[in-house]
Amino acid sequence: MSGAESTAPAAASAPAAGSAAAPAAGSATAPILVAIDGPAGSGKSSVSRAAATRLGFGILDTGAAYRALAWAALETGADLDAEPAVLELLGAWRFDITLRGEQRVTVVLPGASAPSDVTAAIREHAVSGQVSRVSQHPAVRDRLNDMFRAIVAGSGLPGVVIEGRDITTVVAPDAPVRILMTASPEVRAERRAGELSGVSREQVLADIIARDAKDTLVVDFMNPAPGVTLVDTSDLDFEQSIQAVIDVVQAAPSAAVEESM
Ligand SMILES: Nc1ncnc2c1ncn2[C@@H]1O[C@H](COP(=O)(O)OP(=O)(O)OP(=O)(O)O)[C@@H](O)[C@H]1O
Ligand SMILES: Nc1ccn([C@@H]2O[C@H](COP(=O)(O)O)[C@@H](O)[C@H]2O)c(=O)n1
Question: Tens digit of pLDDT for each residue in 113-138?
């Protein structure tokens, strides 16, 4: 497995909580972190991926881990609303995600010997509609956050764009670049509806609003925390959105960031 691919075993092997910028054991320097948060459909994943490629960085889509966990809970019949049941699953599964190139997500379920490729399955409505049930649990979030920090620290990459809901505030509050990417609900629904066949824009809008409402009960990703740069892509096309992220990275005062450019 190359440095472009990360294996994240059960969170038990993750390091103790700390800054994502903490150096990995055995690695001389920690990767530069670009932390990006935002609501559903704001463009976090696609824009972050394109920006990461241009920067020569990896990309860690933390939502994919929450989605994979929800998928695993649904597959195994674990009660998504019971924190102990989800924690037990977290201790027994294996999760892998690629950090470069096309995203690939695999899970080894407890007791299974072979991995399941869940890259497509975790994007289905059955998972999107349930994922907030597993992400609501504080201890689950702590374990996944440790896993994210371990993946980044062990990546061997010069930098990683890490995106989600609480990256700028909880996972990597000390990252040299922190962005909150947003767009109006109508624009987000319009973009998302363009990807889905057979689902109306109105239904997509209702789903987005419902998921954001559940998720904001746990973390605030609608308002930039102090020091976080707001990038509103409502009136930006895809290319302009990528450039807006690159501009924030290039404007960052950190010597470490400048050195990596
Ligand atoms: N500025 C933009 N202009 C046009 N389309 C965009 C723009 N930004 C993103 N998109 C498109 O909007 C859709 C949603 O983007 P993306 O999946 O990256 O959002 P997200 O914030 O990661 O969503 P989720 O949190 O639901 O995973 C994609 O089809 C993407 O290509
Ligand atoms: N840092 C994060 C990332 C995600 N979540 C939860 O996962 C869901 C799916 O995330 P997407 O980015 O793929 O839309 C999201 O709705 C949250 O419930 C999270 O809590 N924290």
Answer: 999 999 999 999 899 999 999 999 99
- Structure token pair of residue 25: 């054991």
pTM as predicted? 0.89
Q: Could you give the angle at the alpha carbon of 158 between the alpha carbons of 13 and 222, nearest 5°?
A: 75
Its ipTM equals: 0.97
Q: How far apart are CA 5 and CA 136, in angstroms?
A: 28
CA of 13 to the centre of ligand 1 (A): 33
pLDDT tens digits, residue range 63-113?
Answer: 999 999 999 999 999 999 999 999 999 999 999 999 999 999 999 999 999
DSSP collapsed to 3 states, 112-143: CCCCEECCCHHHCHHHHCCHHHHHCCHHHHHH
**Cβ of residue 66 lying under 6 Å from some atom of ligand 2:** yes
116 annotated ligand-binding residue: no
Sorted by where each starts, the structural domains of the chain and their CATH numbers stand as 33-57+160-250 (3.40.50.300), 61-157 (3.40.50.300)
d(CA 205, CA 107): 30
214 marked as binding residue: no
Q: Tell me the three state secondary structure of residue 178.
A: strand
